[in-house]
Amino acid sequence: MRVLVGLFLVVFGLTFAILSPRFARAGAAGSKEIFGSTGGTFVRRWNRVAFVVIGLLLAVFGAAYALGFDGF
Fold this sequence. Notes:
mainly alpha, 85% helix
C-alpha cells in the first residue's frame, strides 16, 4: 500500500508541475472575473513557479515514501 500511495503522489506531483502553465492561466482568469484584474505577468509567473515547486516537492516526497524513507 505504501508503494501505491507513493507512486500516486509521484504521478500527481509531476502532473501538477507539467500542467502549471494552464493552472496559472486559469488562476489569472479567475482573478480577472472576481477582482477585475489579473495581477499582471508577475503574478502569472509567480503562480507558475509556485505550482512547479509544489508539484516537484510532492513528487520527490512521494518517491521517498514509496522507497521507505519516512523519517522526514
